[in-house]
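## Example record

The block below lists the input lines for one assembly entry, exactly as stored, with component labels intact.
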Amino acid sequence: MAIEHDLPEFGEVAAILRRGPSDVVYETPPDSMWAAIEAGLADGGGGAEVVDLTARRRARLRIATALAGVAAVLVVGVPLALSFQGSSPETVELAALPGYEGFGGKAELDGRDLAVDLTGVEPKPGEFYEVWLLDIEGGELRDLVALGTIDASGNYKISQSVDLSRYNTVDVSVEPDDGNPAHSGVSVVRGELPLA
Amino acid sequence: MLTMVAERYPPIVHPSPLEQRLIAGEQGALRDLFDAYSPMVLGLCRKLVGAEAEDVAQQVFLDAWKSRGRFDPERGSLGAWLARIARFKAIDHLRASSRRPSVPSADVGESLSVGPDVDAVVDQLVLTRALEELPLARREVVELGFYEGLTHPEIADRLGLPLGTVKSHMRRGLEALQRDLEGSRGD
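Predicted structure tokens for the full assembly:
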């Protein structure tokens, strides 16, 4: 079949999928089950094994924690000389990421005002788009801030505390409407503002 | 000035709030984990060990709490991690049952040969759950490809998407499923 010919590295996943959906039936547990777990914890079953977390995980946790509230995020950045203040507007094209070909747009930064216009976007029920600024160095994400949701266009005021010489990548993600403020990990377009 | 940016960055993986609370050992995180995943875990255990499912399922959650520092969101979802624990708890339970003198010999043989079936059941559940958690567009593409057996061009035609978009959705979707499959297995 064409799919397997194109993606041979997923042979095992493909074979399992081809068996169809699981027939496991989800089952609501009786109250006694939680009571037994609590009893197990009281008997010493809750002692955690101590495992060192990698620096990378800590970094990711720090990022995710920062996302818990936009207000908290916006005071994290170190105020520096504002590279773009007073300069003429800079416009960058927002390029589609893999899987979202046909999407696009542009972002215009004028001082601390960011205007984003998207093209080709088609939000599905239960999903929405969100605009972020990413701090990427050497291909690695260091931090990010949320600017707000967007339909097809939006205007955003960037806090003075956000260092635009670092947070120079405009990112638009597709987010499930699940109340989780963290980045979904699914970006549709990005564009890089020119560094000063 | 218009600047074209062609660079690509990998997807960003962030722990969910529940994942963060669990790793941090916050009070209440186990209860929330139980509320969110106990129907799946209990259903899986029922399929694997039958009448003793509740005993095994509660061991899964106690073990999850005890080993919470080992959970790594980059290696798969919470569901895949719990399925991994359930996989090994069920195998341990079946092996222990097979050693009990009261178990009839026919059941012993069945229990000893049940290993591959445990893996098959867990693998299928992990991928079914992971598929349900994909963004809608990716889920549709993978389901049409594997549940309905459509080719890439047929999926593109059905969904009205460019062929390249279908291929990208398929690859990204399968990558996510593979990550959960690996996360549900041993180190």
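The two ends of chain A are 51 Å apart (CA to CA). Chain A has five helices and eight strands.
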